[in-house]
Design a protein that fits this description.
With about 400 residues, the protein is of the alpha+beta class. The chain folds into two domains: about 200 residues, 2-Layer Sandwich (Ribosomal Protein S5, domain 2), CATH 3.30.230.10; about 170 residues, GHMP kinase, C-terminal domain (Alpha-Beta Plaits, 2-Layer Sandwich). Helix content is about 40%, strand content about 20%. The relative contact order is 0.17. The protein is globular. The model has no long low-confidence stretch (mean pLDDT about 95). Strands 1, 2, 3, 4, 5, 6 and 7 form a seven-stranded mixed β-sheet that branches. A four-stranded antiparallel β-sheet has the order 9-10-8-11. The termini are close together. The chain binds alpha-D-galactopyranose. The site of alpha-D-galactopyranose has 12 residues, from helix 5.
């Protein structure tokens, strides 16, 4: 439970709105262990929700206005809930996410009660740890709680994840998959979350008695997701799906998941030269997720780490969603003491590296990485150990 953050949010609420909040919710950020850009390709993902959080505190008020104060931006948004349409606001702005949640929950809560709320978080923004899903889930849980609803089972968790994804796709304008929402909603202390995006089966996989330390290393570079690269990658993957759709019957091929690595190799020379690299990344990444789950289940952390590093290599060469800063930090990690494996986390192009490290060697690892990265780039990487966590309805 993010006690400190909640305390600060309570104080901020009292300052802004004059009395104590009545409802509080929180949701974690997440790291992507394996399964990079596989989710919207109906593939497999393995993520861990981590102890960086967004909290929402607030109370119902008479009337139809939602007033939300975002501490990170020192800005307030007021939304008239009686209006049938909600303006998206400018691209990349925090309001697009919060308004999107309201938009998404309208089908579940036809009349949303007026409310006042403060949003506060410590998930770094735009760093690949899914600060946006953390915010959206925390606010989604808040709206449900405000109307006397809570998440009672995994079915309800999945229903909320799907609604929030719909908002991110249809309202925010990012063609993302379910990885972030599902990891944030299903994550728990001690568990990784394994999701099959084709049949939406979710399994929680124990991180084990002697789990690896999950070290998050921020390159101190950031990017905006809705700025194009992400959606371009998605269409590059779809080009390959189209090719196979023409070969097989349409009903057989709906996504890259319906194509085997052997079929991809056999058709290699006929395929779009960019799309086939993206597809190879996705198909082999699915295999890495399966192998990674098996490695976790058998406690083979060395094997898991190797898969993580291979995933990054594939991001560099095939999916081309890495950056010089990310590659340099992964390079520093791989030569540091205790490193089992390292890769970029999330969409890519900037943000964080996640490394799995032998717990006894974390201090040496951290010192060595920070020094290596500083020497090569002149930049300071923010490095910390993250612990698995869950949301307020976990
Ligand atoms: C972002 C998206 C996710 C997923 C990852 C890449 O975090 O929001 O849906 O596609 O990138 O794996």
């Amino acid at each position: 439970m993010p006690q400190e953050l909640l305390k600060k949010a309570f104080a901020q609420f009292e300052k802004n709105f004059g009395s104590a909040p009545a409802v509080q919710t929180f949701a974690p950020g997440r790291v992507e262990i394996l399964g990079n850009h596989t989710d919207y390709n109906q593939g497999l993902v393995l993520g861990v929700a981590i102890d960086r959080f967004t909290v929402v505190v607030g109370r119902p008020v008479p009337g139809t206005t939602a007033t939300i104060f975002a501490n990170a931006f020192d800005q307030t948004d007021a939304i008239d809930l009686s209006e049938s349409s909600i303006d998206t606001g400018p691209e990349g702005d925090w309001r697009r996410y919060t308004r999107g949640v309201i938009w998404a929950l309208r089908s579940q809560l036809p009349t949303i009660q007026g409310f006042e709320a403060v949003v506060m978080g410590n998930v770094p923004l735009g760093a690949g740890l899914s600060s946006s899903a953390s915010l959206q889930v925390a606010l989604g849980l808040f709206l449900q709680k405000l109307h006397g609803q809570s998440i009672e089972n995994d079915e309800a968790r999945m229903a909320l994840a799907k609604r929030l994804r719909k908002a991110e796709n249809g309202f925010v304008g990012l063609a993302s998959g379910l990885l972030d929402f599902v990891t944030v909603l299903f994550g728990r202390k001690g568990d990784a979350v394994f999701l099959d995006c084709q049949n939406l089966n979710v399994q929680r996989v124990r991180l084990g008695q002697n789990p690896p330390a999950i070290v998050v290393m921020d390159t101190s570079t950031s990017r905006r997701l809705a700025d194009g690269m992400y959606n371009i990658r998605r269409s590059e993957c779809e080009r390959i799906v189209d090719h196979f759709r023409k070969l097989k019957s349409v009903s057989e091929v709906t996504s890259l998941r319906d194509i085997t690595p052997e079929e991809l190799s056999a058709n290699w020379k006929y395929l779009d030269p960019v799309g086939r690299l993206r597809a190879r990344h996705v198909l082999l990444e699915n295999q890495r997720v399966m192998d990674g789950v098996a490695a976790l289940n058998s406690g083979d952390l060395a094997a898991l780490g190797l898969l993580v590093s291979r995933s990054h290599k594939s991001s560099m060469t095939d999916f081309q969603n890495s950056s010089e800063a990310l590659d340099t930090l992964v390079g520093s990690a791989l030569t540091a003491p205790g490193c089992l494996g390292a890769k970029l986390s999330g969409a890519g192009w900037a943000g964080c590296v996640v490394a799995l490290v032998e717990p006894d060697l974390v201090d040496q690892f951290t010192r060595s990485c920070a020094a290596g990265y500083r020497k090569k780039t002149g930049l300071e990487a923010e490095i910390y150990v993250a612990y698995s966590a869950g949301c307020s309805d976990a």
